[in-house]
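>> received
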Amino acid sequence: MTLLKKLQWSFGLLLFFFVLPVIAGQLPFNKQASTPIKEPEDKPVVFAATNLPEQSVLEQTKEETPEEVTKEVTKDPFKVLLVFTHSQESYQPMVQAVSGKAAVYDEKTNIFNLKDTISKHFSMNGIQTDVLDVDVMKELKRQKKTFPAAYNVVRPYLAKRLQEQSYDLVIDLHRDSAKKNATTITHNNESYARIAIVIGAEHKNYRWNTAYAESLSATMNEIVPKISRGVISKSGDNVDGRYNQDLTKEMILIEIGGIDNTEEELNRTIAVIGKAIAKSFVTEKQE
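>> returned
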């Protein structure tokens, strides 16, 4: 064999071994080497919570928290029921402005008509107000009963309402028969109708009723000094002794102003009553 042929044969052999891997890589039986390895489908990967991004952890917590736990708790409003046992008690200046007559009892212009003003001022202080919508004086006439029977006439209406709904405070509103010098006070150059709170002492709830009355009276005097004439306890002959306060321990009787007080004086005092209820009772309930 000549030298030239030996060189050609050696070159061809080297070329064969160089090209062989390239050719082998294209053959179908060797595809496994270039195919990615897949995780078995029945074995999902589980990550610990600490390996998750912060947002994912928060979303996971939100999904796992029951709706009733995450929902903000809504607090019940402070609810007051207004009662007007002597519904036709009137204020002379108000009656005179409407009809021209000076009367202390009137079928149209009377203390019962203050209910909307009271509800408005109470609402401004976060107080929900209901009214026992009974004209007791008219009912007295219908039943042919006299004035002292008013508390007995309104009692079944009040008892029924208290069975149907619960209240945080029940106020029976009256007008005092005292004259202006006893029922009016001036504070910061403005006049107010003074109030007195009456508690019947002839029933088992009276200490509870008294506690509510004293708290409200003290708070009103903090807002306007001496606007409250204090808490008056009544028992014995010639008085009712209960004033239906035995139906609920949260009931008080407020005498607002007297026969000579004006509408402006009454409005200012009603505003003070609303503020005092909110300060004495509403904040305490929400805490």
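>> Residues 22-73 have pLDDT under 50 and may be disordered.
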